[in-house]
């Protein structure tokens, strides 16, 4: 019996005591279907750069537990745990922290940038910080704005590669799977709000959590929005007992599968060998002196020695037309007897009807006339032969992607060593594999988010894909600056704690991600050696900062808020910062943002934006008065988004508190 039907009958029971007992028994015996796991207490993050304050959260270094600060006296601090137990501790033995669910006000600090791309294209954004808080921040800058989320989260293998609440999770941890599900559920719930109605999320995972992740994503995104379970065979382990392993899965869901279908969105993969065939045809056309018959003969010779490893249908493309396009010919007969498709088709030389199959033609007489006018019908030497239809390779270059594909995983590792000049990161993904999927599932102007950014493969894939097809895709990549368990232990033993420059320099953001992307874009490694000629791209590197609410209210944090407003305005050009000479407003002709500090000068700024060439898409008005903000906003045209920022920014994160 359904719950709604039970409640209908329950309401007919007049005895309140009996009604209560029946309801309790129904709820006790009704099985909950779906994923059941132990949801753990909120996660937290260590913040060694922040000051320990009364009323705030800290981590007690002796055991890694979270406490609230009751009082601070000299070099001593009074702490209370989640059960209210009070202890005294030395101030030097605690570190400032935040638990998820506490309101935080994220800001961003620029820590570097490279600009080699078109100044009108959006910059890629690489953020060093806790991805849960970064996702909350993106809820402010990018609500329902992301085309694709691709993530490669921790696989939870139990070999100390993943931290939960500042502790590495080991295989012996009996709550290992519940912790991982709690960890993922919080982030996926926030991530869902960032996707466009046509947005897609792809999550990479292995056998350890594949089945649990699939059910979790059913709950977060809805099982009706499942799109595909892609299998990447990346190699085989010969020492495995029961199977070769080496498999990664890419689980794909849509924000709304119905919306994807309504928009006729289909994934298409380039046929294997397409580029090689086109290149061979181009060479044959050139060598033949632009002679169709000679070029076709050369093309047939090429196929004799290059036929292996191609899509079977590719080999039929052995002819070259009068413009140098490679094609194949198909039959023109109807697959079934169709009297209405039986008519005379005259040979262009003899003027007599050509031989027709008894079933008739595949096209109507009117449609056939159109194909004749397009030069698509290829006749034989005379009317005794049957004509064929020209199907050009560049018109059928794609196919539905296979859900299972093979690609050696070691390729990604070798590539990263080549980029950086030495080995710094284990088992990175192959950017070529990611490029293939990004090419299939996103438009050329897509926003692509990866909030488990790791070594930065996603960013490199997007940058290379843009260079390949002149796209303007934007990558937002979030990674942290964690170290491996081995490096973490060694640095702590040497006296270098988290927050120390020696420690942070070895983290993944500073040691791998940032130098990798800089090298790919500029072509120059950290040590000054040459890697390549570089690629056109604009990239901004940022640290996630935690701002004091009182300073935000007092308008003292503009420098750290400006990058958020820049991201919200599409991230084109430079971040507009306030200078010592700024009084009324700041803007830049190449930036997508302008900032009005004096609402009374709105008309002056609006005139500048109207009369001078610029890229401004968003004007932020810093004001404490909604009335002033509304009045100032009226000065700007409808094509520019206007927003009073401080009030809306604080409100956005007050809302996030309840969501957490």
UniProtKB/TrEMBL annotation:
Protein origin, superkingdom: Bacteria
Keywords assigned: Methyltransferase, S-adenosyl-L-methionine, Transferase
Entries under InterPro entries matching the protein: DNA_methylase_N4/N6 (IPR002941), DNA_methylase_N6_adenine_CS (IPR002052), N4/N6-MTase_EcoPI_Mod-like (IPR002295), SAM-dependent_MTases_sf (IPR029063)
One Pfam match: N6_N4_Mtase
The DNA methylase N-4/N-6 domain, residue ranges: 146-467
UniProt record similarity statement: Belongs to the N(4)/N(6)-methyltransferase family.
Protein's UniProt name: DNA methylase N-4/N-6 domain-containing protein
């Amino acid at each position: 019996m359904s719950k709604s039907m039970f409640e209908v009958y329950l309401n007919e029971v007049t005895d309140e005591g009996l009604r209560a007992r029946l309801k309790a028994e129904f709820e006790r015996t009704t099985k909950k279907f779906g994923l059941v796991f132990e949801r753990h207490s909120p996660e937290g993050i260590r913040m060694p750069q922040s000051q320990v304050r009364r009323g705030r959260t800290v981590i007690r270094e002796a055991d890694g537990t979270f406490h609230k600060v009751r009082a601070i006296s000299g070099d001593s601090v009074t702490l209370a745990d989640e059960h209210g137990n009070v202890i005294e501790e030395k101030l030097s033995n605690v570190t400032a922290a935040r638990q998820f669910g506490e309101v935080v006000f994220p800001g961003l600090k620029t820590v570097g940038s490279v600009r080699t791309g078109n100044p009108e294209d959006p910059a890629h954004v690489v953020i060093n910080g806790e991805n849960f808080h970064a996702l909350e921040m993106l809820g402010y800058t990018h609500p329902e704005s992301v085309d694709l989320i691709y993530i490669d989260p921790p696989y939870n293998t139990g070999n100390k590669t993943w931290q939960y609440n500042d502790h590495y999770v080991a295989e012996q941890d009996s709550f290992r799977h519940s912790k991982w599900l709690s960890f993922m559920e919080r982030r996926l719930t926030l991530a869902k709000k960032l996707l466009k109605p046509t947005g897609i999320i792809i999550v990479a995972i292995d056998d350890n959590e594949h089945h649990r992740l699939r059910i979790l994503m059913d709950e977060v995104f809805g099982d009706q929005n499942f799109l595909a379970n892609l299998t990447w065979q990346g190699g085989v382990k010969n020492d495995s007992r029961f199977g070769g392993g080496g498999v990664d899965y890419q689980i794909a869901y849509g924000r709304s599968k119905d919306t994807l279908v309504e928009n006729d969105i289909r994934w298409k993969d380039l046929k294997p060998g397409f580029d090689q065939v086109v290149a061979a045809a181009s060479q044959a056309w050139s060598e033949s002196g632009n002679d169709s018959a000679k070029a076709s003969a050369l093309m047939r010779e090429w196929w004799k020695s290059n036929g292996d490893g191609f899509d079977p249908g590719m080999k039929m493309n052995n002819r070259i037309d009068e413009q140098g396009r490679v094609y194949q010919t198909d039959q023109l007969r109807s697959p079934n007897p169709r009297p209405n498709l039986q008519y005379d088709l005259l040979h262009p030389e003899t003027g007599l009807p050509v031989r027709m199959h008894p079933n008739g033609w595949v096209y109507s007489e009117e449609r056939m006339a159109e194909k004749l006018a397009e030069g698509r019908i290829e006749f034989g030497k005379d009317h005794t032969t049957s004509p064929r239809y020209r199907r050009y390779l560049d018109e059928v270059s794609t196919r539905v992607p296979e859900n299972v594909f093979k690609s050696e995983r070691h390729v990604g590792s070798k590539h990263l060593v080549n980029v950086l000049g030495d080995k710094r990161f284990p088992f990175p993904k192959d950017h070529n594999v990611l490029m293939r999927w990004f090419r299939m599932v996103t438009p050329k102007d897509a926003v692509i988010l990866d909030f488990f950014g790791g070594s930065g493969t996603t960013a490199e894939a997007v940058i290379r894909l843009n260079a390949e097809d002149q796209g303007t895709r934007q990558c937002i990549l979030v990674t942290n600056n964690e170290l491996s368990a081995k490096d973490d232990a060694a640095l702590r033993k040497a006296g270098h704690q988290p927050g120390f420059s020696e420690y942070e320099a070895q983290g993944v953001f500073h040691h791998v991600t940032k130098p990798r992307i800089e090298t790919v874009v500029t072509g120059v490694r950290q040590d000054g050696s040459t890697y390549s000629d570089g690629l056109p791209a604009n990239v901004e590197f940022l640290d996630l900062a935690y701002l004091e609410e009182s300073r935000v209210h007092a308008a003292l944090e503009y420098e750290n808020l400006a990058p958020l407003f820049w991201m919200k305005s599409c991230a084109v050009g430079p971040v507009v910062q306030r200078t010592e000479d700024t009084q009324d407003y700041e803007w830049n002709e190449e930036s997508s943002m302008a900032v009005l500090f004096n609402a009374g000068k709105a008309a002056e700024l609006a005139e500048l934006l109207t009369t001078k060439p610029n890229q401004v898409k968003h004007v932020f008005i810093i004001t404490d008065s909604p009335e002033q903000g509304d009045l100032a906003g009226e000065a700007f045209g409808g094509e520019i988004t206007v927003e009073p920022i401080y009030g809306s920014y604080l409100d956005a994160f007050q809302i996030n508190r309840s969501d957490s």
